[in-house]
Design brief:
The chain is α+β, with helices and mostly antiparallel strands. It has helices spanning 10-24, 40-46, 53-71, 124-136, 188-192, 240-246, 254-288, 295-315, 320-327, 331-336, 339-358, 365-378, 383-390, 394-409, and strands spanning 2-9, 82-88, 92-99, 105-106, 140-143, 153-162, 165-178, 200-206, 220-234, 290-291. A hairpin with a 3-residue loop joins strand 2 and strand 3 (92-99).
């Protein structure tokens, strides 16, 4: 940890105060002047220069930190610095930056780690399972007379009552329920078997002890049910129309379909097993290394993980604060869930960077050009747009260095 005092004074500081005022004056009202037209000197006399200090400090922190980096190019900073305002008045500003330097990494063994890589094996049961799911997508529903049987789709009205009172979430109209799908609580679907179209029935059941609703778990209830329609579910045959609907290249019979499904399952398994193997290699390398990871680096990684999680929630139309409140947690307690993974990621990253240095890994200009082109094509961007979005080619260069280091670690 290093403490570095940075100062802004004289004309630079006074200009910043005036700059802040120019942004602020639109909302300033002083008797005798139109809103937004108050001269700087009048504002200072009436309101006080001190009212501009905090906004000016916010601007100055970034400028002074940039200056600190320019003046200390050999300083390798591990995480965001702590900022402490030491002095602020009309003439100057002093800020103390508490800077954490990158920790020393003492690598242990990182090659030939003796981690066993599993082989992807696909069973007939897995192929059959995926095949049945695929056929379900093309299932035909046909109106059926007679009684509900296992495998049929019963279109029902239902309402649940506990102690004679309807409970929340227990009602549905024209609900298409596949008998045997286990979509409802145990006993519900079985009770529909044998019912006919138009028939009504009371079904007495008990909710499971592990049911998600505290109000209903383990409770005895009655469902009033009416069967509106019964539909037979007809799976598609392996014929020309079915394979045409599938529109899979090279698939034109049951044998080739099963082979395609098997290959797809194997590809996904191989990817998962490769990820698992890499993770195990990184874990072993990390355990062999000696690193005193600064708390600030872990804090920064936790914030990154929180931001990523928040963005994923936004894509689903939910705010992270709402999500945390639903869990009944504080924000700090929720963040703590990320801390073990964050520390692991930081340790991995530090070890990989140490391998890059130990192996003297370099990225040639041609490699970087080819990689930039490849990534631009992958994300359907122009190379210039990709580089601009990433903030320069250094990110791509770093990514290539990491890839080369991983090849050594996982070899």
């Amino acid at each position: 940890m290093k403490e570095i005092l940075m100062e802004m004074k004289g004309e630079e500081w006074s200009d910043l105060l005036k700059h802040v005022y120019e942004h602020k004056k639109a909302n300033v009202e002083i008797k005798g002047f139109r809103k937004g037209q108050v001269p700087f000197d009048v504002y200072v006399k009436q309101v006080g220069l001190e009212s501009l200090y905090m906004d000016a400090v916010d601007h100055a922190v970034a400028d002074l930190y940039g200056k600190l980096l320019d003046e200390n190019k050999d300083l390798k900073i591990a995480c965001r610095p702590a900022v402490d305002i030491k002095a602020v008045d009309k003439d100057h500003l002093e800020i103390m930056f508490s800077v954490t330097e990158m920790p020393e990494v003492k690598l242990g063994k990182y090659k030939d780690l003796k981690v066993k890589k599993e082989e992807a094996v696909v069973t007939d049961e897995e192929v059959e399972h995926e095949l049945s799911h695929l056929r379900e997508e093309f299932i035909e529903l046909k109106d059926k007379e007679g009684k509900v049987e296992n495998g049929d789709q019963a279109v029902i009205d239902f309402e649940g009552f506990k102690d004679g009172v309807a409970f929340k979430g227990g009602k549905g109209e024209n609900y298409p329920l596949v008998i045997g799908s286990n979509s409802f609580i145990p006993g519900f679907e079985e009770a529909l078997i044998g019912m006919e179209k138009g028939e009504e029935k009371d079904i007495n059941l008990t909710f499971p002890e592990n049911y998600h609703s505290e109000e209903l778990k383990g409770q005895k209830v009655t469902f009033k049910v009416k069967v509106n329609e019964i539909k037979e579910r007809i799976l598609p045959e392996y014929n020309e129309d079915f394979f045409k609907d599938l529109a899979m290249e090279g698939v034109n019979d049951e044998k080739s379909l099963r082979e395609e499904i098997k290959n797809n399952i194997k590809t996904h398994k191989e990817k998962d097993l490769e990820d698992k193997y890499t993770e195990e290699c990184l874990t072993k390398m990390s355990e062999n290394a000696k690193i005193d990871v600064p708390a600030g680096m872990i804090d920064d990684e936790v914030e990154r993980m929180m931001d990523d999680f928040s963005q994923r929630l936004q894509y689903q139309g939910m705010n992270i604060d709402t999500y945390i409140n639903m869990l009944g947690m504080t924000k700090d307690a929720f963040k703590d869930n990320f801390r073990p993974e964050a520390e692991k990621r930081v340790r991995y990253r530090l070890c990989i960077e140490a391998v890059v240095k130990a192996e003297d890994i370099k990225v040639e200009d041609k490699e970087l050009e080819d990689y930039t082109k490849e990534m631009a094509e992958r994300y359907n961007l122009k190379e210039e747009e990709l580089v601009e979005q990433l903030g320069g080619k250094d990110f791509l260069k770093y990514d290539l260095e990491v890839r080369k280091a991983l090849e050594i670690i996982t070899k």
